[in-house]
Design a protein that fits this description.
The complex is a heterodimer.
Chain A: H1 10-18, H2 20-29, E1 32-34, H3 43-62, H4 72-83, H5 87-114, H6 123-145, H7 150-161, H8 171-178, H9 185-215, H10 229-237, E2 246-248, H11 249-274, H12 304-310, H13 315-328, H14 332-335, H15 349-370, H16 377-400
Antiparallel strand pairs in A: 1-2
Helix pairs in contact in A: 3-5, 3-11, 4-5, 5-6, 5-11, 6-9, 12-13, 12-15, 13-16, 15-16
Chain B: H1 5-31, H2 45-71, H3 74-113, H4 118-128, H5 149-152, H6 155-163, H7 165-168, H8 186-189, H9 193-206, H10 215-222, E1 234-235, E2 238-239, H11 246-267, H12 277-280, H13 283-291, H14 309-323, H15 327-356
Antiparallel strand pairs in B: 1-2
Helix pairs in contact in B: 2-3, 3-6, 4-9, 6-9, 10-14
Chain lengths: 405, 360
């Protein structure tokens, strides 16, 4: 047993038992971050803040929401929106944050791709991040079901139908997922459970893994420079703050995180109060009606690119393409055969074109996924989907020709 | 080292805004028809244009079929011939419709020019009270009280509804000689131009002034006989009452259900509850839809209601009170939160500058 002495202060008393000083050093003041980074490195903190907003607003909504097909719509649109003080505010924060979190995830993700932050020991960061994307997608989808509006019902119908596997006709699987032949009470109850318990637990676990994965390889930097963290941190602690290539996480980097978060929150609350329509589809303010299909069924904007990879093909090929699109990002660290772990613009023209084309093409797919499936949109969507697949197939080839910079 | 952050920010903002533009304003512009208000005048220009468009569409199909006919095999020729004859018949039917509408709206315009005499109108108005008497007769719907009709509805509409209810309501696709509009017989009761002008003058005279019309009155009188608004406790038969005994509550509910059954027969389906329509359809859609339901939902059995622009605004206001009750609070809190967050961002910036002074 450790040796305990009579405490000199409350802090000392706690410190002897919980080693808070050590924890503070490991997590904050001596957690070293490269100095050569830009505001895109603050997206992790922005995501944490958005997740906390989702969690807190979700807890308040949970106090009044009723997971029952007869009362769910009413509990959201009457009880929460009209009766409960500030219920509307929590709902708008929850809805907008659920949409904006994907914008930040995509920015975070493309930052990682651009700076090669998935290579040379950082593979686990990428993999855990991609698993987080999967978990967030499941969380968003299950949450979308809960208000039991028209889009909840029909999106639930369409997405669970995908599990029939086209020509496999695995209708039994679809019924097993729904707990009924069509989305009904069993379906709503289980998606409620997924949304408020199981998936949030998975997300919390994955966030822990994502952070842990950062510990050993450290955060990347703008130039992909390999930094000797021991030497540089010694330099910092010896007083040469200007000369050192590293800074403390707290408060050095944290102050920058907070500055970026401040600007982000101005943008976020502008959306919450003045421009929330994009995150709360009007169609979902009609109560669910199994006898009336909406004129246009489309997912939320962040799923549109993969929806458009599914849509232009025949059902079986579409499902294969869709599965490919869902899984392929996980393979990025292994498909990129390049010896370089640096920014895309310094890796030669091939990868630079690949990167900007991928980004642009995914935006094109996103747009076509929302537009009605008629010409010219379906033709553009078809070729964009083909291009997406071709780009991924070409990645190992073009990167293996890349020379060490 | 050159500061690249402004450039990076510009790139991030550009791609985010491009995505937003394509997914929101652009996609919605493609998904939904743009309909603009014609100023709630009901002069028939919309109605006539609708039929003209149908005719030109039919003529185009016919022309295509005729071109195909030339090179078709004998077998196909027979089929094409039938199709051509069908579209010829359709065109003829639509042309009759067009002519009827043109005549009708020129009649309305002519009557609108006559200066009606309210005193004479009062005597004729007794005819209307046979049905419009708040006695609860159900004729598809309950004939509305006409006490304030003169303020809710425009003059053109009031003239039109007496001249020919089917025409002014733009539901001639729904009614026929075999299936008459419940108010069809008015044509034979009040038929001369002067009589119509006089009744309309009377209705306009007895109505309250527009300033006295509340959003609730506007909604309940012009929309509320078909559309419930559960969130405002409004049923098609009036505001839900509280009863001491459950059997009275149930009896009232049954009355509503029975009335809804008759509405279903009359309209083809139960007209939807409008509690959340301000969020599901939005102000612009609702307003233009009220002006001419056919413009955004072709073939709907909902009649044009003929309200004034002012009444339409009040109906929209009522729907906001039902489905967006916290809008004023939202604006006020929004402003305060924005001020708070900007100050927070400012302090965060100052903190960062202070700390990074030693790092660069």
């Amino acid at each position: 047993m450790a040796k305990f002495t009579k405490a000199t202060s409350i802090k000392d008393w706690i410190n002897q038992r919980l080693a808070i000083e050590k924890v503070e050093k490991v997590m904050g003041s001596e957690y070293w971050i490269p100095k050569n980074i830009n505001f895109l490195w603050a997206m992790g903190m922005v995501l944490v803040i958005t997740f906390v907003l989702l969690l807190v607003s979700g807890i308040f909504l949970l106090m009044y929401y009723q997971p029952n097909i007869d009362t769910a719509f009413y509990s959201v649109n009457y009880t929460i929106m009209r009766d409960v003080d500030f219920g509307w505010l929590w709902r708008h924060i929850h809805g907008v944050a659920a949409s904006v979190v994907f914008l930040i995830i995509y920015i975070h993700m493309f930052t990682g791709i651009y700076y090669g932050s998935y290579k040379k020991g950082r593979e686990m960061i990428w993999l855990s991040g991609m698993l987080l994307l999967v978990a967030f997608s499941a969380e968003a989808f299950s949450g979308y079901i809960l208000p039991w509006g028209q889009m909840s019902y029909w999106a639930g119908m369409v997405i669970t139908n995908l599990f029939s596997g086209g020509s496999l006709h695995a209708d039994g699987l679809v019924e097993w997922i729904r707990g009924d032949y069509v989305p009904a009470q069993a379906f709503l109850s289980r998606f409620f459970m997924l949304h408020v318990l199981l998936i949030p637990l998975a997300i919390l676990g994955l966030i822990g893994l994502h952070f842990a994965a950062l510990r050993i390889p450290h955060v990347n930097n703008q130039d992909g420079e390999e930094i000797d963290f021991d030497a540089e941190s010694k330099k910092y602690l010896d007083g040469d703050k200007k000369g050192s290539k590293v800074i403390r996480f707290a408060n050095d980097f944290m102050s920058k995180d907070m500055m970026v978060a401040g600007i982000y929150l101005v943008f976020f609350f502008y959306l919450v109060f003045y421009n929330y329509g994009f995150a709360m589809d009007p169609v979902n303010f009609d109560p669910a009606d199994g006898l009336k299909t909406p004129a246009h069924i489309y997912p939320e904007w962040y799923f549109l690119w993969s929806y458009e990879i599914l849509r232009p093909f025949s059902i079986d090929i579409g499902l294969i393409a869709f599965a490919f699109a869902q899984g392929i990002f996980l393979g990025l660290p292994f498909l990129d055969r390049s010896p370089n772990a640096i920014a895309a613009n310094r890796r030669g023209p091939a990868f630079m074109i690949w990167f900007w084309l991928m980004l642009t093409n995914m935006i094109v797919l996103t747009a076509m996924g929302k537009l009605p499936p008629e010409d010219p949109y379906s033709t553009i969507g078809y070729w964009a989907a083909i291009l997406f697949i071709v780009q991924w197939l070409a990645l190992p080839i073009i990167t293996s020709y890349e020379k060490k910079v | 080292m050159k500061n690249k952050e402004p450039l990076i920010l510009a790139v991030v903002v550009f791609f985010s805004l491009a995505t937003y533009y394509l997914v929101e304003p652009y996609a919605h512009h493609i998904l939904h028809k743009d309909v603009e208000s014609k100023g709630f005048v009901y002069d028939g220009s919309d109605d006539i244009l609708e039929v003209e468009n149908i005719i030109s569409g039919l003529q185009k199909t016919k022309l295509e079929k005729e071109l195909e006919y030339k090179d078709a095999s004998a077998d196909e020729k027979q089929k094409l011939k039938t199709a051509i004859i069908t579209s010829e018949n359709d065109i003829a039917i639509q042309k009759v419709r067009l002519e009827k509408k043109q005549t009708f709206f020129s009649d309305v315009a002519r009557i609108a020019k006559i200066k009606g005499d309210a005193v004479t109108g009062e005597a004729i108005f007794a005819t209307c009270s046979g049905c419009h008497n708040d006695a609860g007769i159900v004729m598809g719907t309950i004939p509305p009280s006409l006490d304030n009709a003169g303020v809710y509805y425009t003059k053109n509409y009031l003239i039109g509804i007496i001249k020919d209810p089917v025409m002014i309501s733009n539901v001639d696709h729904k009614f026929s000689v075999e299936n008459e509009h419940p108010m069809a017989s008015v044509k034979y009761m009040v038929s001369s131009d002067e009589d119509i002008a006089n009744v309309v003058a009377y209705m306009q005279k007895i109505a309250i002034s527009p300033e006295k019309v509340t959003p609730k009155m506007a909604y309940e009188n012009t929309c509320g006989r078909c559309h419930s608004v559960v969130y405002e406790k409004w049923t098609q038969l009036g505001t839900t009452e509280k009863f001491k005994h459950k059997k009275d509550t149930l009896a009232a509910e049954i009355k509503v259900l029975e009335y809804e059954d008759s509405l279903k027969v009359y309209m083809g389906k139960l007209p939807p509850d409008l509690s959340m329509y301000i969020r599901s359809r939005g102000e612009h859609f609702i307003s233009t839809f009220i002006e001419n339901p056919q413009s955004q939902l072709e073939g709907t059995s909902m009649p044009r209601v003929g309200v004034t622009a002012d009444t339409a605004d009040k109906v929209v206001e009522y729907l906001k009170n039902a489905g967006d009750t916290k809008r004023h609070e939202r604006e006020e809190i929004g402003r305060n939160v924005m001020i708070y967050i900007v100050i927070f961002a400012l302090f965060a910036f100052l903190w960062k500058r202070e700390i990074w002074k030693d790092l660069h």
